[in-house]
Design goal:
By secondary structure, this protein is α+β, with helices and mostly antiparallel strands. It has one domain (12-187): Alpha-Beta Complex (Peptide Deformylase). Helix content is 25%, strand content 28%. Strands 1-2-5-8-9 form a five-stranded antiparallel sheet. It has a two-stranded antiparallel sheet with strand order 3-4. It has a two-stranded antiparallel sheet with strand order 6-7. Strand 8 and strand 9 (140-145) form a beta hairpin. The radius of gyration is 17 Å and the shape is globular. Nickel (II) ion binds at residues 113, 115, 155, 159. Residues 113, 115, 155, 159 line the site of nickel (II) ion (NI). Its cofactor is Fe(2+).
Length: 188
């Protein structure tokens, strides 16, 4: 396993339309294992292969939910006593994913992206969708998705078409976001 470099805007490779995977071989497994390592190290919850410069239709996602069977940890970060649970890993791999029937109803989430560091903005997307995809062995599956998973997979699938979440914003908001990113890079 190895951590690969994550491409960031305005790298033109992020605009590439990725190619379908046809070989379910060791090279694919190595790519996926590197993508997980890169995503966890960043840290992030989703990564498309093109974000590490590989123009293949491969996504990894891990929403890293709280593990409610683990020992709760008391917390007071907002001035109120409550508990958090440690997160657990739920790694998911999607090869050649397709969206079958996006809902008309939209859901809005504040999105970010490892290729657009430090920028967050609300994006509306279909609230639910059915996804057809292949696993690492080439087996085809279909799954209904909702909530954060539906948003995340649509965000990652956009990367396969060369689209970033900031492309869903108005030109004004996108330019403001890119300006902010440029300023932060100059300050760094
Ligand atoms: Ni992204």
């Amino acid at each position: 396993m190895a951590i690969r470099q994550i491409l960031e805007v305005p790298d033109p490779r992020l605009k590439t339309v990725s190619e379908p995977v046809t070989a379910f071989d060791d090279e694919l497994k190595e790519l996926v294992s590197d993508m997980f390592e890169t995503m966890y190290a960043a840290p992030g919850i989703g990564l498309a292969a093109i974000q590490v410069g590989v123009p293949k239709r491969v996504l990894v996602i891990d929403l890293q939910p709280e593990d409610e069977e683990a020992e709760p940890e008391p917390c007071n970060h907002d001035g109120h006593d409550h508990v958090h649970y440690p997160t657990k890993n739920e790694p998911r791999v999607f090869v050649n994913p397709e969206i079958l029937d996006p809902a008309e109803e939209l859901a809005s989430y504040q999105e970010g992206c490892l290729s657009v560091p430090e920028i967050f903005a609300d994006v509306d997307r279909p609230a639910t969708c059915r996804v057809r995809y292949q696993d690492l062995e080439g087996e085809t599956h279909e799954e209904d998705m909702d909530g954060l998973m539906a948003t995340c997979i649509q965000h990652e699938m956009d990367h396969l078409e060369g689209i970033l979440f900031i492309d869903h914003l108005s030109r004004l908001k996108r330019n403001m976001a890119l300006k902010k990113l440029k300023k932060m890079r100059e300050a760094a």
